[in-house]
Protein 1
Amino acid sequence: MATRTRLTPEREAELYEAVLDLLAEVGYDALTMDAIAARTRSSKATLYRQWRSKPELVARALQESKPPGLDEIDTGSLRGDFYEILARTDDSKLERDSALLRGLVQAVNDNPDLHEALREQLVEPEKRELEAVVRRAVGRGEISAANPAVEFVAHMLVGAFFARLIIDDQHPDKAYIMRYIDAVVLPALGV
């Protein structure tokens, strides 16, 4: 079995950024390993040594673009925790993320490998991080564990992105998401 050479963290970050840029430019279906190799001045063989497939590379690039340690945020209030999570991003990143999400929705429907890779590397870890934030709020007595909305926190937050795009034809920004959290998520949770 061939040994797998590790990329430097800096080179890996550059590569992930290039993948996301290309994904935003051409969409998932037109994104090729050849294009990624050309953009990053890498060989396809190098890419395939590091990532088994395009879905795995795309999912990993999306995962790595997220700020780490969201599950460790503990400001003492659920509202404060949500606001601190938002403080770790900016409007231009939110716009890019929502555009990428919008483009990936169709690709996920047509590509089960991408769907699986996104669930494994992005959706499930983020869901666990949100659940940790909510569990702490339950532990503080801020919300009731029996509240039926507890299981839908991730759904509500993802819904904010799609609702803003579909209904308002705008990308969600921090101000919109903060208003949404205050008007929808926190009241649903009984805060």
Protein 2
Amino acid sequence: MEKKLYTLLVYSENVPGILSQVSAVFTRQQVNIESINASAFSVSGIHKYTITAWSYEEEIKKITKLIERKIDVVKADYYLDSELFIHEIAIYKIATPALMANPEVSRVIRRSGARMLEVNPTYTTVQVAGLTDDVQDLYNKLNAFGCLLQYSRSGRVAVTRSTEEPLAEFLHKNKDI
């Protein structure tokens, strides 16, 4: 059995400290969080946390159950990449002199589907949006050219491939609660 990258979708009431409580579950289980993205959800008063972690299935099941026990958590589920639509965004700051000196840098940027946000004599900012592998691939290529000055990437944004929204289905089943 090998570790796999799991994505947890956690829905909670919008109360202070809930993110700390959720991350504490991972800490107690000694599982490192790879990325986390928190945002308001389409249901008023609910927030959605998209958390990725490398783990074993039994371990991630346990973590999911522990998170769902938190009073302010409405629902939590875990998924493999094949069960989700996934997107990330990254911004790369590269040295403009290196960009101008090597036409291959510009070709790599164009082939990746990235777009230039700003170009000045010192640096150029480039943005790419896509799958985790696409974001990492562009990083690797730019880093290999030695032109990368800064790099930042978002946490994962994900929705299930299911036709039903997991939280809406849960709320419908439990409307009397």
